[in-house]
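debug: dumping io for the single-chain case to check the tokenizer round-trip. Nothing else runs in this session.
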Amino acid sequence: MKRKKWLAPVVLLGLLAALILWIIWGNVTIKTTVYHIYDANLPQGFRGTRIAQISDLHNAEFGADNEPLLSILTREKPDLILFTGDMVDSDHTDVNSALSFAAKAVDIAPCYYVPGNHEAWLGHTYTEFEAQLRTLGVTVLRNEATPFQRNGDTVQLVGIDDPDFVESASGLFDLSSAIVDKEITDAGHAEEYRILLSHRPETFPTYAAQGINLTFAGHAHGGQFRLPLVGGLVAPNQGIFPKYDGGMYTNGTSTMVVSRGLGNSIIPVRINNRPEVVVAVLHSSSGPNR
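debug: decoded output
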């Protein structure tokens, strides 16, 4: 009888310890997710192009000097690296940590960056941060496009500001789609193949309406807590059970890849939602995602 009396608490404590260890493991180990993008409109010279996406780092560090994260990027051999916002966190900003990571990333592949809402909240600190990124060789795209060439063909990399750069400054809210629409229009090059860097995924219908071919976004943090067979629980600007929490989405001929991100913000813990590096491989033909 005594053995049975103690058995249940011991088992429960063991299960609780296993759960805690699993949650810790799921917050400090990085997952690499590979997406294959099939697009008949992609210029032939970009067949096989590998794009790595880093999103929502929020000053997180994985090991000493983020070496595990840098090792993943080195192993994946990307042709370019995209930073889709929130490299720093406005509540515990560590500019030097973000810059140190960027300085090493540019040695792996050309790096392109757009700011997120947390950068918009930094004020004057962001201006200094952006200047230092440019000094390191990171291409910062702010409502503009830049050509990227490969094997004799060219695509336009378009980067837009997070709507909070406008909304926070003006005191206006819920105008994200209109802001994004204007930013993309101002960037131009509508007649060319365009790859968009945007922090926010919830305005995907606007990207598609603007004829953007391929978008990389973040911001949703994978829904923070992921439920089996359901997906993410909550995401900023999308609320409960967000539509665009992480993964690949299509709207007509437009495709969007949403990273689950690497760091955390308001909620310091992820559950069933490991930090993620995205790698997209481009194919110039129609395929499974069409």
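debug: round-trip ok. The longest helix spans residues 2-28.
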